[in-house]
């Protein structure tokens, strides 16, 4: 009988421990962090490979040559974009860790409000600063999403031309890189629908793969935007909770001081009355 009671108590203790652990997790920040990492990984990985595929297409089918020296050409711009992708991957990994740690800290602070823990002004300032950064990065990812939509639109036009060339007989359409700003006006780098290079480009996997990689990168940037919105909501809620908790803590401190003063006054008067009787 005693063994059954011990087992039931141990099971109850494990259940309460699990509920306490699950309840103390900052689910909003955790979900936003996972979504942010997925979006950044998708954008950086697919964007890097899509830029590499763009370089191969320019070299193999449009015969674009890298300019000698430090001239700012399309290949130099693509290299700069790759370095930006590396920076985004590293920076937002650290930023996601900071936001997740802040979520754990705030959740513990709210749950320990009526204990010995006291909400400090430093914690509120840190939450407000992270909220400002989250809003700033939200605008950054909006710009990244808009910028990523441009190559998706251009590759969609090229992919549509390849799909519809066989349907329209006698059409003579050309892809001129000068229209996209990839080369200077003096250079003529174009591929027309009736040429052999155009058919090779359409039949190769490079064009189709690069187009779909850019689409995946656009989806990753959109996921990062949604993650930033989640972080903004979680940080705004945490900041409001911390502010209310700080006010409640001040009220409890003032109330305890008043009660202590009343207790001291009552004890002093009792001693005075006792001395008067004696």
TrEMBL record:
What keywords are assigned to this protein?
A: Membrane, Transmembrane, Transmembrane helix
The UniProt entry, under Pfam families, shows: Myelin_PLP
This protein is called what? Neuronal membrane glycoprotein M6-a
The record's SMART domains line, in alphabetical order, gives: PLP (SM00002)
Using the UniProt record, give the first listed, main subcellular location: other
The lineage's top-level taxon is Eukaryota
Q: How does it assemble?
A: Interacts with OPRM1. Interacts with palmitoyltransferase ZDHHC17/HIP14; the interaction leads to palmitoylation of GPM6A.
Biological source species: Xyrichtys novacula (Pearly razorfish)
Question: How does the protein associate with the membrane?
Answer: Multi-pass membrane protein
**Biological processes, Gene Ontology terms:** neuron projection development
Spell out the family assignment given in the record's similarity comment: Belongs to the myelin proteolipid protein family.
Read off the PANTHER family from this record.
Answer: MYELIN PROTEOLIPID, NEURONAL MEMBRANE GLYCOPROTEIN M6-A
Where is it located? Cell projection, Dendritic spine; Membrane
Q: Does the keyword Membrane apply?
A: yes
* Segments crossing the lipid bilayer: 21-43, 83-105, 126-156, 211-241
Tell me which GO cellular component terms the UniProt record holds: axonal growth cone; dendritic spine; filopodium; neuronal cell body; plasma membrane
